[in-house]
Amino acid sequence: MIGKLNHVAIAVPDITEASKTYRNVFGAKVSEQIDQPEHGVKIVFIKLPNTQIELISPLNKNSPISKFLKKNPNGGIHHLCYEVENIDLAIEKLSEKDFGLLEPGKPKLGAHGKPVIFLHPSKCNGTLIELQQE
């Protein structure tokens, strides 16, 4: 069902400072900041030859990333994102197996303007997994 790794998301307390590190220290190509009110986050993408790093930071105090950063004040790996050919089919198959969709039903639009869903870490060896339509 899953295809290539789309990105590794790293939660950071200060997205501006984290972006500077990737740009100025590692010489990486860093996107402009994207605010995603529907998800409560602000993000930037770091372009790599084989995938992307998504830096993710709270957009507001109600952000789900705020809880993560309380437990991990310096930040850390938040989730992995895999591409799927057909998100609706993936939802159907996972629902049939009662496989811990965080928000059952319709996917939300992700940062790339494509539908995404999240799978509960308890079903994925302790890792939050995002599935994104190719």
What does this structure look like?
With 134 residues, the chain is an alpha+beta fold. It has one domain (2-133): Roll (2,3-Dihydroxybiphenyl 1,2-Dioxygenase, domain 1). The chain has helices spanning 15-25, 64-71, 87-96; strands at 2-11, 29-30, 34-36, 41-47, 52-58, 76-84, 108-109, 115-119, 128-133. Strands 1, 2, 3, 4, 5, 6, 7, 8 and 9 form a 9-stranded mixed sheet that branches. Strand 8 (115-119) and strand 9 form a beta hairpin. The radius of gyration is 15 Å and the shape is globular. It starts with a strand and ends with a strand. The model has no long low-confidence stretch (mean pLDDT 93).
Question: Features of this protein?
Answer:
134 residues; alpha+beta; 2,3-Dihydroxybiphenyl 1,2-Dioxygenase, domain 1; 9-stranded mixed β-sheet; 3 helices; 9 strands; 38% strand; globular
In CATH's first tier, which class applies?
Answer: Alpha Beta
Helical stretch count? 3
Note the quaternary state here. single chain
Per CATH, the superfamily is 2,3-Dihydroxybiphenyl 1,2-Dioxygenase, domain 1
CATH architecture: Roll
Number of domains: 1
The profile of the biggest β sheet is: 9 strands, mixed
Shape: globular
- Spans with pLDDT under 50 lasting ≥5 residues? none
CATH third-level topology: 2,3-Dihydroxybiphenyl 1,2-Dioxygenase, domain 1
Strand content: 35-45%
Class by SSE composition: alpha+beta
DSSP strand count: 9
Order of secondary-structure elements: EHEEEEHEHEEE
Question: How many whole angstroms does the radius of gyration measure?
Answer: 15 Å
Helix content: 10-25%
Q: Span between N and C termini?
A: 12 Å
